[in-house]
């Protein structure tokens, strides 16, 4: 997904002034920005401030990205910098406040950013794949992942399908979900990354 052509296309369209593409970037990557903010345990107001700053920075810099496919990493790094800036500003009077950024443990920070990118890409791939399922599959899977999950009798009554067909239908829907090009690309990259790590280890 690092060289995801859809990301490259979105960046190109934004640079051409396409508002729909800009909305697409915000929809796709807002969860990434929010999740990094929450990892830093920011208040709701600080999360909003960081989000606004990150999107303004992107407006100013999107045309200067050397590699448009690196947009997710750029957003993660910008969000981390803004979170640290907000935390430092709130702890100015605290002598035991945060250390300078160059003294932050880099491995931990890098791992956090990598994890956030992975989760954002996984969630986007899943949402895109789920949106392509037929309405009946979406309704069935949505009911079955509810917390707490309803019983099969309740699912049967709500969706007007026989109890005996719920399991097989769920299996077909999940298989269709797994075959989605969105998830297939994500899973292939994950498997490739795992192989690289195992070879390096």
Give a brief description.
The protein is mainly α. It has helices spanning 5-15, 19-39, 44-61, 71-90, 106-131, 135-144, 152-159, 163-178, 181-200.
Keywords:
Rna Polymerase Sigma Factor, Chain: A, 75% helix, disordered C terminus, 201 residues, mainly alpha
Commentary on this structure:
By secondary structure, the chain is mostly helical. It has a domain at 5-128: Rna Polymerase Sigma Factor, Chain: A (Orthogonal Bundle), CATH 1.10.1740.10. 75% of the residues lie in helices and 0% in strands. The chain contains nine helices and no strands. It has helices at residues 5-15, 19-39, 44-61, 71-90, 106-131, 135-144, 152-159, 163-178, 181-200. Helix 2 packs across helix 5 (106-131) and helix 6 (135-144) crosses helix 8. The two termini are 23 Å apart.
Instruction: Look at the structure and name the CATH superfamily of the domain at 5-128.
Output: RNA polymerase sigma factor, region 2, helix turn helix motif
Q: Helix coverage percent of residues?
A: over 70%
Quote the beta fraction: under 5%
Tell me what the CATH architecture of the domain at 5-128 is.
Orthogonal Bundle
Radius of gyration: 21 Å
CATH class of the domain at 5-128: Mainly Alpha
Average of per-residue pLDDT values:
80
- CATH topology name of the domain at 5-128, in short, is Rna Polymerase Sigma Factor, Chain: A
Count of DSSP E strands? 0
